[in-house]
Amino acid sequence: MELTAGKLAELVGGTVDGDANVIINNFAKIEEAKTGCITFLANPLYTHFIYTTEASVVLVRKDFEAEQPVKATMVRVDDPYATLAMLLNYVADQQVRKRGIEQPCFVSEGVSLPEDVYIGAFAYIGKNVKIGKNVCVYPQCYIGDNVSIGDNCIIYPGVKIYHDCVVGNNCILQAGVVIGGDGFGFAPENGEYVKIAQIGNVVICDNVEIGANTTIDRATMGSTVIHKGVKLDNLIQVAHNVEIGEHTVMAAQVGVAGSAKIGAHNMVGGQVGFAGHIKVGDNNKFGAQSGVPNSIGDGLSVIGSPIVNAMDFARQTVYMKRLGELFKDVAALKKAIAEKDK
Predict the structure, then answer these.
(1) Residues of the chain with CATH 2.160.10.10
(2) Which residue from 200, 241, 306, 324 could staple onto 259, CB 3.0 to 4.6 Å apart?
(3) CA–CA gap between residue 15 and residue 295 (Å, rounded)
(4) In whole angstroms, what is the distance from residue 214 CA to residue 159 CA?
(5) CA–CA dist 79, 63 (Å, integer)
């Protein structure tokens, strides 16, 4: 990528404050940027860096007011972070996708592949698999029998998609993802655990991204469903018959137990655990390491294990920090009372 600040402003619908002819050819964080780089200022905690950055261009909000001279050219936009994301996607789209079928790989007889598909070396494509247009299946992937993959998907190295599972359009599965492994289903019998066959599947809807080494188990019956726009980080476990609502995001190491129903537009921090068979509403925020044992409604901000209101948790934390002082005060009071009673 190489363009002027003026051209950049046209591209993103911004205005230039400074030299419109300065050239940028790279991206960098504001505190690390060098000449030729574009960076952004979205978090007020980083404001001081704009006066020392070596970046050639900084994306700032339209209402940003500098308190000191700024050496870099500023491009004023509505949302610097969203604009940066758009630019990064623009650059990524300019990169040429791989095409063709590498050897050795295995494609089952009768499977029809679009002309613009990419199948990497040592990939396995099972019987009756359907693969859409502009799909990339990187090396060492396993695509089981009767799997359906929509258009414009990227299946990174080492992904395993078991039989009968469905992946929608515009999905990204990072390396090591496992879709459709058996759910953890066992029935106690005579002091042992007998395996319950898991005969359902996994359905992943459009525009879903799944992080590296995340696992989504197939349903015992029916489907485990990941609805459109969901973003899952690395190392997440989604159990059988779970349903995750549209545009919910989950950070690393979240665990969702069997048959839990998670609503839409939830924001879930790292290492949160959801109990099985519960129902979670929409537009909730879960702090890191929260434990969610019961069903909850909509629009809550919670943290803790078990979860409590985030403001209550903050107050409890303050109280906990003062427990040592409280014990000293109680001990002093006891001593004073004892001496008075003598």
Answers:
(1) 100-311
(2) 241
(3) 48
(4) 10
(5) 11
Any idea which architecture 3-94 has in CATH? 3-Layer(aba) Sandwich (3.40)
Phi/psi-derived region of residue 134, left when phi > 0, alpha when psi is between -120 and 50, beta in every other case: left
Cβ contact 107:126 at 8 Å: no
Tens-digit pLDDT profile for the chain (342 aa)? 789 999 999 999 999 999 999 999 999 999 999 999 999 999 999 999 999 999 999 999 999 999 999 999 999 999 999 999 999 988 887 777 889 999 999 999 999 999 999 999 999 999 999 999 999 999 999 999 999 999 999 999 999 999 999 999 999 999 999 999 999 999 999 999 999 999 999 999 999 999 999 999 999 999 999 999 999 999 999 999 999 999 999 999 999 999 999 999 999 999 999 999 999 999 999 999 999 999 999 999 999 999 999 888 888 888 888 888 888 888 888 888 888 876
Q: Which of 48, 163, 227, 240 is catalytic?
A: 240
The values of phi and psi at residue 39, to 5°, are -140, -170
CA distance 41 to 37: 13
CATH 3.40.1390.10 occupies which residues in the chain? 3-94
Tokens of 215: 């696992």
Q: What is the per-residue DSSP string for 291-309? A: EE-S-B-SS-EEETTTTEE
Token pair recorded at residue 264 = 């839409």
3-state SS assignment for residue 231: strand
Q: Is 240 a catalytic residue?
A: yes
The burial of 128, by beta-carbon neighbours within 10 Å (0-12 exposed, 13-18 middle, 19 or more buried), is given as middle
* Domain 100-311 architecture: 3 Solenoid (2.160)
